[in-house]
């Protein structure tokens, strides 16, 4: 593990794997730097992959108050540690954070995104996003991280019985420790205003970009990925047959390697 420091002094823990041109991995909700370890290992023969704990997770610090701009500054610090510029891969809400960072002018050379979960603008989805943000914020403020975690799981389509089983599983305490950062992902998604796709922001990202979706993911996720690829000035869409939002590193790695070559 190595440590870098963000602009506000927050400690950010990183892991460096492999050798070659740098690629920074930005995890999504409930991810820490270990979540990208398998993918990093598969790319290590061609790339130096930096995975990191986003603020509030794992070995990283967390300096209040939270703002999405602080997370962009965290990524800037990791890019600096990578050599000043690098390709960036983002997963889910991490893909949205990566998009926002690239649009803000960070030195991103190439951008790969897996299923950025924007809503297409349908009123029902926008309303649900706002309601989720309000309920999540209230649960966390009320000291109910377990309920907040269950709320998130339900919001992404996990059946109630599966959530109940998860609450009894050995992994639950570790997930519950990450629950406060669900508010950060909600802020990245701009759920308080409905989580709609920021078309003007996406159009500002001029670097070569790859958007990947799973062929067995929900239709709205595939549609969102396709729309993001269309909006990106240099965007390309790839759909991985048989994959879902829980994409297998073995299926994703060759696609990323080809794009980054």
Describe the protein.
With 261 residues, the chain is an alpha/beta fold. It folds into 2 domains: 2-118 and 197-260, Alpha/Beta hydrolase fold, catalytic domain (Rossmann fold, 3-Layer(aba) Sandwich), CATH 3.40.50; 123-189, no CATH class. It contains 11 helices and 8 strands. The protein has helices at 37-43, 68-81, 93-103, 123-141, 145-155, 160-167, 172-178, 182-189, 199-203, 219-231, 249-260, and strands at residues 2-5, 11-18, 22-26, 48-52, 86-91, 108-114, 209-214, 235-240. The protein has an 8-stranded mixed sheet with strand order 1-2-4-3-5-6-7-8, sandwiched between helices. Helix 3 crosses helix 8 (182-189), helix 4 (123-141) runs antiparallel to helix 5 and helix 4 (123-141) packs antiparallel against helix 8 (182-189). The longest helix has 19 residues, at 123-141. The model has no long low-confidence stretch (mean pLDDT 95).
């Amino acid at each position: 593990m190595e440590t870098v420091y963000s602009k506000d002094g927050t400690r950010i823990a990183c892991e460096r794997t492999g050798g070659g041109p740098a690629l920074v991995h930005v995890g999504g909700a409930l991810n820490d730097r270990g979540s990208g370890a398998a993918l990093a290992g598969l790319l290590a023969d061609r790339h130096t992959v930096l995975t990191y704990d986003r603020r509030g997770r794992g070995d990283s610090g967390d300096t209040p108050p939270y703002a999405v701009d602080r997370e962009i500054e965290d990524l800037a610090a990791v890019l600096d540690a990578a050599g000043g510029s690098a390709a960036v891969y983002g997963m889910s809400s991490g893909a949205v954070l990566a998009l926002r960072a690239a649009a803000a002018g960070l030195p991103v050379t190439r951008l790969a995104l897996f299923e950025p979960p924007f809503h297409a603008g349908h009123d029902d989805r926008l309303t649900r996003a706002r309601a989720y943000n309000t309920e999540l914020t209230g649960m966390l403020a009320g000291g109910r991280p377990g309920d907040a975690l269950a709320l998130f799981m339900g919001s992404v389509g996990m059946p109630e019985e599966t959530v109940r089983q998860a609450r009894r599983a050995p992994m639950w305490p570790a997930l519950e420790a990450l629950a406060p950062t669900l508010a950060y992902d909600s802020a990245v998604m701009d759920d308080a205003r409905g989580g709609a796709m920021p078309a003007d922001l996406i159009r500002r990202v001029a670097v070569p970009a790859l958007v990947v979706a799973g062929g067995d993911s929900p239709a709205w996720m595939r549609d969102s990925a396709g729309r993001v690829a269309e909006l990106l000035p240099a965007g390309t869409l790839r759909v991985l047959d048989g994959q879902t939002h829980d994409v297998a590193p073995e299926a994703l790695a060759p696609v990323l390697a080809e794009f980054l070559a």
